[in-house]
Write a structure and sequence with these properties.
The complex is a heterodimer of chains A (698) and B (79).
Chain A: E1 14-20, H1 26-34, E2 38-42, E3 49-56, E4 62-67, H2 79-88, E5 100-106, H3 110-122, E6 127-132, H4 134-139, E7 143-144, H5 146-153, E8 157-159, H6 168-176, H7 192-207, H8 217-224, H9 239-252, H10 256-272, E9 276-277, H11 286-294, H12 299-318, H13 320-340, H14 345-362, H15 365-381, H16 383-396, H17 405-410, H18 415-421, H19 428-437, H20 447-457, H21 465-493, E10 504-505, H22 514-548, H23 557-563, H24 565-572, H25 574-577, H26 584-592, H27 599-607, H28 618-626, H29 638-650, H30 655-665, H31 669-695
Parallel strand pairs in A: 1-4, 1-5, 5-6, 6-8
Antiparallel strand pairs in A: 2-3, 3-4, 7-9
Helix pairs in contact in A: 3-10, 7-8, 7-9, 12-15, 13-14, 14-22, 15-18, 15-22, 18-30, 19-21, 20-21, 20-28, 20-29, 21-29, 22-30, 24-26, 26-27, 29-31, 30-31
Chain B: E1 5-6, E2 15-20, H1 26-33, E3 41-47, E4 54-58, E5 61-65, H2 67-70, E6 74-77
Antiparallel strand pairs in B: 1-6, 2-3, 2-6, 3-4, 4-5
Classes of the chains: A alpha/beta (698), B alpha+beta (79).
């Protein structure tokens, strides 16, 4: 006799939580149910994406939907899984416990998906099982007796194919059911010793105040079995009690967690083997056929290389047009303000501070969008996991894993999407290390600096192009080498002993949903502009003020700059940067390019009163070459240029990256650490280059 | 009765039944939760182009794991 739930408060909107394994099509279903009505943010205190939306039932009732992070188990091993557990158990203050649950199952992989589903059913919330990807199961020759599954579990089971919205109506009707049948109890085959030990563990947590006396024993169970390195959702004061209860449990029943896993799979096998029919000989699916090529020892590499080459070609060719438009638009805006406002500080603040500063960041949006699109496409099709599979061995040499590859690679165009793409890395340690070394990849903002310095270093047009190309490649290699060295160092230094195995699922390939990708693209971009926007604006104004005050009587911008705070800082810090071969004028350039690296070029144009010309750096190059030291020797010797380039390879001069790292790590600690270590490395390597070079007589 | 072998040493395409996974090893508990348990039939699908990690088929899904973990798992190859 199935039990029935009742809804105590009819006025509040009913909330459904959407849960399921990664790659089960949960997000596709969420998009199909909610359409564009969704809100994406973050759970406070953790970098776990929070997605909410709403949909209307066939009866016209409005319902809220929370898309919870994909997970394999309620035994949390990551912040994502801890959030899932805590929302379902009503342990998060920011998210009320959902009224009901839709658990999405991958029909082609039902046994493993039932592992999480049975954990969810035991929590006692009214649950609908959405049996998704029935087409993939059919292709594999798997037959599932839906009626028998429903009968055995007691809760509604809706077969569906969320990608083409098949079964969606039936699901909505099921969501509307009131009251909804509750699942039958699931009694795992546990030994008496195990049951008793778990009971004692629950009591310990109740006595310790970790769970309320009225809480279900399952709440205690999933706290006892959590392995999230950050222990998210558990106040640090409770850790000793939890540890004590665990030690006791382990003493009573050795390897109790492993036994519980086996007991659950035994239950699933016992109860569902007659319901799931597998073909005797597996048929080669589309995924098998594709993998034969895409993971081939030779073609696999060729494909990865071809895709990456295409990506970079697109970034540097397609993005060029829109970047020029954005540049022109900001220029036009500044000109319009120039027209409309009376001359004065306020006008300068708007044109030179706000418009120029924000424009310098927004100009990278086309690149960021293309990268987001590509990353989304690779995630959605299932190819991303294949890249990780191919690259894992290489990345493991420096202590990272295959999933770090794509974020790092993206960072050769721009570090911002690279940092945001690290969310796919499950291991908290690997993710943090990847974020910390990402800005060492030479991004496109460094390119103008390298070009100017190489032109100054090798001014003669007679010198072989190969020398210039060689220098450029050298800078990229130096940055890459630095990223690997620091990844290796951080791996030894940070969070020692946190060994997380690289267990990766290679999901079935699927046709990407363009709508889903564009939706995600839009959300990520909006998030970047909104969250990083305030920080970028603040730093832009600060840098503008440093270059504009105190006022000088001269109309010459170069005189004004030299008398400003920025100029004064340049002069004060000159003794500090003199060992690198720099003078205070270069110091101003270094300071100004803290906003974004490419600003160095325009600042140097102002410092030396050269008409700025984006397409031709020859006038600026010639001016730099003419610059003399007090003793009459050239200021910009090849060695100084090399020292400057090396400084730019390592220095953390990008406020957007700092802002995004702050958001992705949830504290100022890591962006400041990054700023500190990278500046130190930049200083020391530039020092080494200049001093060694000088000693050798260059 | 066939002898047991390390999972890491299976040849490509070979199927086997898992005999033992060491208990109480945290890195293997997640693998268990994903369905890799004693008695489970698995197939070594392929090795990554650089030899490590390996891809296995288990209960209808494809998983990748490193040799480091695969060295700990004893399997009985099927003829």
């Amino acid at each position: 006799m199935p039990m029935e739930d009742s809804l105590p408060n009819r006025r509040t909107r009913r909330t459904y939580a959407l849960v399921g394994n990664p790659n089960c099509g949960k997000t596709t279903l969420f998009n199909a149910l909610t359409g564009l009505k969704q809100k994406i943010g973050n759970y406070p205190g953790v970098t776990v994406e929070r997605k909410e939306g709403e949909c209307t039932s066939p009866r016209g009732e409005r319902m809220s939907l929370i898309d919870l992070p994909g997970a394999y188990s309620l035994n949390a091993r990551s912040p994502d899984e801890a959030v899932l557990r805590d929302v379902l158990l009503g342990r998060r203050l920011d998210t009320p416990q959902p009224d009901r649950v839709i658990c999405v199952l991958d029909a082609s992989n039902l046994e493993r998906n039932l592992y999480l589903a049975t954990q969810i059913l035991q929590l006692g919330l009214p649950t609908i099982l959405a049996l998704n990807m029935v087409d993939v199961a059919e292709e594999k020759g798997i037959k599932i007796d839906v009626a028998a599954l429903e009968e055995r579990l007691g809760c509604p089971v809706i077969p569906m194919q969320a990608s083409i919205k098949q079964g969606l109506v039936q699901l909505k009707f099921a969501m509307d059911k009131d009251p909804m049948p509750l699942a039958k109890p699931i009694d795992l085959p546990l030994s008496r010793a195990m049951s008793n030990a778990l009971e004692t563990g629950h009591q310990t947590l109740v006595d310790g105040g970790l769970v309320s006396p009225s809480a279900s024993p399952f709440e205690s169970l999933y706290l006892l079995s959590e392995h999230d390195p950050g222990h998210h959702g558990i106040p640090s004061g409770h850790w000793p009690i939890l540890q004590k209860a665990r030690t006791h449990l382990e003493a009573e029943v050795s390897a109790w967690e492993d036994q519980l896993v086996s007991a659950r799979y035994d239950w699933i096998h016992e109860n569902c083997q007659a319901i799931i029919q597998r073909p005797g000989t597996a048929q080669a699916s589309m995924t098998d056929r594709l993998d034969r090529v895409l993971l081939h020892p030779l073609w696999g590499w060729a494909t990865v290389l071809a895709i990456m080459a295409t990506l970079f070609y697109l970034i540097f060719s397609i993005a060029d047009g829109p970047m020029t438009w954005i540049d022109n638009a900001f220029g036009a805006a500044a000109a319009a303000v120039q027209e409309a406002m009376p001359d004065g500080d306020l006008r300068n603040l708007v044109t030179d501070g706000i418009i120029a500063g924000v424009g310098g960041v927004v100009i990278f949006l086309p690149q960021i969008l293309i990268l987001f699109f590509f990353i989304g496409l690779m995630e959605d099709t299932g190819y991303m996991a294949r890249v990780a599979f191919i690259m894992d061995r290489l990345m493991s040499k420096v202590g990272l894993n295959g999933k770090s590859f794509l974020p790092l690679l993206s960072s050769y165009a721009c570090a911002v999407p690279g940092v945001m793409a690290t969310r796919t890395i499950d291991s908290a340690k690997d993710r943090l290390i990847t974020i910390l070394v990402i800005p060492l990849a030479s991004c496109s903002a460094r390119l103008p600096v390298y070009l100017l310095m190489i032109a100054t270093m090798v001014p003669s047009d007679q010198i072989a192009v190969t020398t210039k190309v060689g220098l450029m490649v050298g800078m990229y290699l130096l940055g890459t080498f630095g990223a690997f060295v620091f990844a290796w160092l951080f791996n030894r230094g940070l969070m020692k002993g946190d060994h997380s195995p690289m267990i990766l699922e290679l999901p079935s390939y699927k046709v990407p949903s363009l709508r889903g990708i564009v939706l995600q693209l839009w959300e990520r971009t909006r998030l970047f502009i909104r969250r990083a926007g305030t920080i970028i604006l603040g730093i832009s104004i600060l840098l503008w003020a440093a270059a504009s005050y105190p006022k000088s009587d001269s109309d010459d911008p170069s005189v004004q700059l030299s008398q400003s705070f920025a100029g004064q800082i340049g002069k004060i810090t000159e003794p500090l940067i003199a060992p690198l071969g720099y003078d205070w004028k270069m110091g101003i350039g270094l300071l100004a390019s803290f906003a974004a690296r490419e600003v160095f070029v325009s600042t140097m144009s102002i410092v030396y009163s050269v008409e700025e010309n984006e397409d031709d750096i020859t006038p600026l190059r010639d001016r730099l070459l003419a610059e003399k030291k007090p003793d009459g020797s050239p200021r910009y010797t090849p060695l100084v240029c090399l020292s400057l380039m090396v400084f730019y390879v390592f220095a953390m001069q990008c406020m957007s990256t700092l802002a995004i790292v702050k958001r992705e790590t949830n504290s100022w600690k890591w962006p400041l650490f990054q700023l500190g270590y990278m500046t130190a490395v930049a200083y020391l390597t530039a020092l080494l280059v200049y001093q060694t070079g000088s000693a050798l007589g260059f | 009765m066939a002898e047991t072998e390390k999972l890491a040493n299976l040849s490509t395409g070979q199927t086997a039944v898992i005999v033992t996974l060491p208990q109480g090893v945290p890195s293997l508990t997640r693998l268990r939760e994903m369905g890799v348990l004693p008695g489970t039939r698995i197939q070594l699908i392929r090795r990554a182009p650089l030899g490590d990690p390996i891809e296995i088929g288990v209960r209808g899904s494809l998983l990748s794991l490193r040799l480091q973990e695969a060295e700990l798992i004893d399997v009985r190859p099927e003829p």
